[in-house]
Write a structure and sequence with these properties.
Number of strands: 12
CATH topology of the largest domain: Aspartate Aminotransferase, domain 2
Shape: globular
CATH superfamily of the largest domain: Type I PLP-dependent aspartate aminotransferase-like (Major domain)
Number of helices: 13
Number of domains: 2
CATH class of the largest domain: Alpha Beta
Helix content: 25-40%
CATH architecture of the largest domain: 3-Layer(aba) Sandwich
Strand order of the largest sheet: 1-7-6-5-4-2-3
Largest sheet: 7 strands, mixed
Bound molecules: pyridoxal-5'-phosphate
Strand content: 5-15%
Radius of gyration: 21 Å
Length: about 375
């Protein structure tokens, strides 16, 4: 089955008791048993819920994976992967990471005795000097947030497999429509479902997809033991959102390209970070591992003063100033004070994330209106 067909049909069946075409919201905490331990696969809803199960199957299919697990947030999903580790284990990850992941790694897991190496993985060989017998996990995020750097998943997997290191990829920015890390050899794909998969800015949720059955069982054990599971209402909303994922992504990509090109040609704009540009340092890798370049981009103003960037963000109208991304409506974000505020300033600057950087999540509105809005706003700075 191709992607759009899977988005609509995979894992989803009409309700057997009524024929309802839409998956019902099984709003229940428990299930009645015929005799002790004798039930239809559902005992208690932390462990399993039919609405959530259909969603998990659907997301797994979109990532060409065998097993899916949903969590109450993207961070809940990431946390479940890290719970596979033991004190003394080491993790290699990139230095251009979602702020919440950085916070979880450094403020929660370092305290639990896990060591993290933050390095520039746009050159995969940079990880070689950090690998030792304790290295257990490689955590990749590509495209990266907010600088849109691209990491070569296949090249990283090749090195990791040589050293028996598991590879997890945060695929939130690409969505399964643009990139499928399991096909490139990764062991785990993580999504903040809150973003493109949900797509309508109305749900917080996370997901993991794997192929290995033992790994799935270990993660399902963690999900049930630790309990960060999503409810059936949210599962329904995401099932509904995913039915248009392919249509939304096509428009996100189309609008993203138009806006990246518009900004790049504007005299008041400094640098535009978008992997679709042929002179983007990782363009070749992006072209190889992604189907298109997505609707996320960042830029600076030529006049690089922070107050100019703030004036821009206060005056723009169709782009709402808000955290998050991947919804139908366009958003604008100031990484230094919003999504990436949990990264120390020194670290941020060292990694190229300046105070004046502006990030756009380009929505699916008519791009002419979005460009007009940017044009009007640029005239004011
Ligand atoms: C939002 C986000 C997360 C965290 O997901 P939540 O659903 O907010 O917990 C992780 N990684 C990336 C790249 C994100 O954008």
């Amino acid at each position: 089955m191709k992607f759009g067909t899977k988005a609509i049909h995979a894992g989803v069946e009409p309700d057997p008791s009524t024929g309802a075409i839409m998956t019902p919201i099984f709003q229940t905490s428990t299930y009645v048993q015929e005799s002790p331990g004798k039930h239809k696969g559902y005992a208690y809803a932390r462990g399993a819920n039919p609405t959530r199960n259909q969603l998990q199957k659907n997301i797994a299919a979109l990532e060409n994976g065998k097993f899916g697990l949903c969590f109450s947030s993207g961070m809940g999903a990431t946390d479940a992967v890290l719970r596979l580790l033991n004190p003394g284990d080491e993790v290699i990850t990139s230095n251009d990471l979602y702020g919440g992941s950085y916070r979880l790694f450094t403020k929660v897991y370092e305290r639990a005795g896990v060591k993290f190496h933050f390095i520039d993985l746009t050159n995969p060989e940079n990880m070689l000097p950090r690998i030792n017998k304790n290295t257990k996990l490689l955590w990749l995020e590509t495209p990266s947030n907010p600088l849109m750097r691209i990491i070569d998943i296949q090249a990283c997997v090749a090195i990791a497999k040589n050293h028996r290191i598991q590879v997890a990829v945060d695929n939130t920015f690409a969505s399964p429509y643009l990139q499928n890390p399991l096909d490139l050899g990764a062991d785990v794909v993580m999504h903040s479902v809150t973003k493109y998969l949900g797509g309508h800015s109305d749900v917080i949720m996370g997901a993991l997809v794997v192929n290995d059955e033992q790994l799935y069982k270990d993660l399902a054990f963690i999900a049930n033991s630790c309990g960060a599971v999503p409810g059936p209402q949210d599962s329904f909303l995401v099932l509904r959102g995913i039915k248009t994922l392919h249509l939304r992504m096509e428009r996100h990509c189309f609008n993203g390209k138009k806006i990246a090109e518009y900004l790049r040609n504007h005299s008041k704009v400094g640098k535009v970070y978008w992997p679709g540009f042929e002179d983007h340092p990782n363009h070749t890798v992006a072209k190889k591992q992604m189907k298109d370049f997505g609707g996320m981009l960042s830029f600076t103003l030529k006049d690089d003063r922070l107050e100019k960037a703030i004036t821009f963000m206060e005056n723009v109208e169709l782009f709402s100033l808000a955290e998050s991304l991947g919804g139908v409506e366009s958003l604008i974000n100031h990484p230094a004070s919003m999504t990436h505020a949990s990264i120390p300033k020194e670290e941020r600057l060292k990694n190229g994330l300046s105070d004046s950087l502006i990030r756009l999540s380009v929505g699916v509105e008519d791009v002419e209106d979005l460009i007009q809005d940017l044009e009007n706003t640029l005239a004011k700075v």
